[in-house]
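Hey team,

Sharing the Oxidoreductase run so nobody has to redo it. Sequence (388 residues) first:
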Amino acid sequence: MTTHKVLVLGAGYAGMAAAIQLAARVKGRADVEVTLVNAHDRFTERLRLHLTATGQPVAELSIPDLLAGTGARFVRGWVTALDPDTRTVRVDDDRVLHYDTLVYGLGGVAGTVPGAEEHAHTLNTPEDAEVLGRRLAGLGRGTVVVAGTGLTGVESAAEIAERYPELRVVLLGRGEPGATMNTRARTYLQAALERLGVEVRSGAEVIKVLPDAIELAGGETVSADVVLWTGGTRAAPLAAAAGLTVDDRGRVATDAALRSVSHPDVYAVGDAAAIRQGYGVLHGTCQSGMPTGVHAAVSIIRALRGEEPKPFRFGYYHTPVSLGRHDAVVQFTHPDDSPRRISLTGRLAARYKETVTASPWPTYLRMKKMPVSGAFWPRGGRFTRGVR
Ligand SMILES: Cc1cc2nc3c(=O)[nH]c(=O)nc-3n(C[C@H](O)[C@H](O)[C@H](O)COP(=O)(O)OP(=O)(O)OC[C@H]3O[C@@H](n4cnc5c(N)ncnc54)[C@H](O)[C@@H]3O)c2cc1C
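Structure output:
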């Protein structure tokens, strides 16, 4: 009997969902082997990295503990190369892992501008968040510029301002904070930032990060003791370097079943994948990332049985945004992510946000016992029907 080797790269929200779903479904089978590779053995709750950056503790969630008893193998290491021709992956340069089917879930990081790598902090990894945490804790007084008015920028600016009221916090970027929300939610979000003392500058395009300032298009500079860069998104260069077809952000282009369009033995999930739905390409979120992982796992099981995988369908349902520890806005959305009329604000929204943020780990634990419990998410109705 030959063994089919499934290798899952990245134990983020999407890769973890794929690995645990697969492991639970093939438990006890000798003909399928599941291996998960990740940089850390602790699960990174990316949704809480702005808490780490402001010195607040987060839970210790052990990936090997979660996989225990499923038969899946865990390899801790940094994936340095992928060779789709030989179906091999290199880990920490010197270790080679073979696969028959690959699940590519290495996530994404913020975009960049000249000077950002040298002079700006990011929330790309837990280590980055810890470095920023130490810098902010030792700053005393000064100016923190948070570049990027997207939701990561908003949550980070609010958290820093609440935690360190003696600091001047400037949130700066192209768009208006909360731009995708309805008027009520957006107004609430902007008033909360004002209450926390965050200075907002929208319509500003950062073109360079300097050692003690940022430079805007038009030549103006804004002084900063610390710059946190949150603008844009890009995927790791690994997939493109391996010759997989990627989009302009380096995300793996997928077919309707989440397989790479150039290499169908590779499934791509989460932020690392460019996944098209009827309303456009998914933008990176945890709410869509976990379903992509589950769908890839279920598709692999179907393919092993000789069945065709089904198309992936997903519709958004909310945008929860924290505004410090006691306040938040939750914008409920149509499946295409456009805002509905209803939104939650204040303490109730903060509780909702916390419930959502805490939910992935219990979901994995449930899936480990009952894989089918992971298969429920909004499919998007008419917004996703009949795509490709
Ligand atoms: C501060 C912040 C707040 C956010 N808030 C929200 C929110 O409220 N709601 C929401 O839906 N989304 C939110 N997001 C976005 C969300 O975190 C991402 O969309 C989500 O993490 C994507 O999941 P993923 O599994 O694709 O990637 P990730 O969660 O980034 O996981 C990728 C995994 O791969 C590992 N990895 C990467 N490269 C390698 C390598 N070469 N070798 C080995 N391992 C590697 C990483 O260590 C990580 O474990 C937020 C993001 C940030 C930064």
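The mean pLDDT is 96.

Ping me if you want the raw files.
A.
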